[in-house]
Amino acid sequence: MGLTSRPPIPLNSLEAQISERGPGKGRQGRIRAMAISTTIDNPNLVPVTTRQESRSGLRGSDRYWALAFVAPYVAVFLAFVIYPVGYGLWLGSDPAAYLQLFADPVYPSALVNTLIYLAVAVNLKLFLALMLSGLFIRSGWRIKTLLVVFMLPWAVPGIPSFISIHWMLNSQWGLINNIIWELFQVDGPPWLDNSQLALSSVIYAHIWKWLPFWTLIFLAGRMAIPKELYEAAEVDGASRLDRFLHITFPLLGGLYLVCTLLSTIWALGDFNSVRFISGGGPALSTHVLATLGIRNAFELGNPRLGMATVLSALPLLIPLVILLMRQLRKGEVHI
Q1: Angle, to 10 degrees, between the axis of helix 195-223 and the axis of helix 158-168?
Q2: What's the N-to-C CA distance of the chain in angstroms?
Q3: What are the 10-residue block averages of pLDDT along the chain, 335 residues in total?
Q4: Model-level pTM?
Q5: Where are the domains of the chain?
Q6: Which of 35, 117, 202, 210 has its CA 20 to 30 A from that of 226?
Q7: Quick count: other Cβ atoms within 10 Å of Cβ 278?
Q8: Smallest Cα–Cα separation from 310: which of 298, 326, 328, 325?
Q9: How far is 121 from 264, CA to CA, in rounded Å?
Q10: Rounded Cα gap, residues 119 and 206, in angstroms
């Protein structure tokens, strides 16, 4: 806003007001009145803060204090993000490591297992989460109590849970096979001694662990949908399936897509499920890229081969990240 000049105040009126205050304050009042009238008569004398001064950064000691507060965060970021990523890329830049990796007979099976793991675990998990969120949105203390119990697998630590599942699936003295023997007097299947059953057990453990989390996400999304839409559809005679297909799923479509991309990125780097359920066995047949990279780097003592194994997932990871960022930038994740 610009400064607007006001009409000058007559000096005689100011002197008359000052003279009424007493004889001892006349000269001081005249000087003050002259200053007031001069400032008002000349608006250019009023100090104006320019736009350049208002945009000026920190000066003096404030700048040093700001640098002192920012320095620890920059140091941690450089030490624990930039350096590991840069060192890993340097280790994975050796072409000979990729030639050795592609000649490894375990690598093709690990790549196929990774694709199966992502396709089955992610899609089945999110589909079940979307369906279960419709159950838990209902009112009633029984539903709320069941929701609390349902959230326990996600709340407990993952590694002890996977180790417990591993011992439960043991074909000789595991809990599941013992129950099968007690009930049917037959031997249970070799859960961890068959490659297909072992990979299925790993997928089951992953779904069991992360299903409550994604159910909670979709439950929050359902709660954000206005109830008036369902009430209007019910008045029009729409069934529950129609309301789901024409109201719930279209409004949760953006959220479902983002959850799918994010869950795929997380599952691609999942190490604990395979490592502590099947251990990559039997005969290295259930390895995924994450566990195979750790095996090559630490068990075989070849860090360059292990990093090349992990970096071979970048052609799948980078498009997922790009799609996720574009989806978030569009602002389509809203109800």
Answers
A1: 140
A2: 40
A3: 48 47 47 46 50 53 87 95 92 92 95 96 96 93 94 94 94 92 92 95 96 96 93 91 92 93 94 94 94 94 94 91 86 50
A4: 0.77
A5: 11-48, 97-330
A6: 210
A7: 27
A8: 298
A9: 9
A10: 13
Question: How many CB atoms sit inside 10 A of residue 237's CB?
Answer: 7
Decide: 256 and 122 in contact? Cβ < 8 Å: no
Sign of the dihedral through C-alpha 135, 141, 144, 150? negative
* DSSP assignments along 241-281, one per residue: HHHIIIIIHHHHHHHHHHHHHHHHHHHHT--HHHHHHTTT-
| Burial group, residue 204, by CB count within 10 angstroms (0-12, 13-18, 19+) | middle
What CATH fold (topology level) applies to the domain 97-330? MetI-like fold (1.10.3720)
Render pLDDT for 36-65 as a digit per residue (tens, 0 to 9). Answer: 444 444 555 445 555 454 445 556 678 888
Residue holding tokens 């992990």?
Answer: 310
Of the candidates 45, 41, 44, the residue with the CA atom closest to the CA atom of residue 10: 41
SS3 39: helix
Q: Which amino acid is at 310?
A: V
164's tokens: 């417990």
Tokens of 260: 């799918």
The tokens for 39 are 């400032």
CB-CB contact of 147 with 136 (8 Å):
yes
pLDDT one-digit tens code per residue, 178-201: 999 999 999 999 999 999 999 999
Amino acid identity of 178? N
Sign of the dihedral through C-alpha 188, 192, 193, 199: positive
Helix, strand, or coil (residue 238): coil
d(CA 204, CA 273): 9
Crossing angle (nearest 10°) for helices 123-136 and 141-150: 150
* Residue located via tokens 């199966």: 116
The two three-digit tokens of residue 239, written as one number: 């069934």
Token duo for residue 287: 């390895």
Distance of alpha carbon 289 from alpha carbon 40, whole angstroms: 78
d(CA 268, CA 118): 7
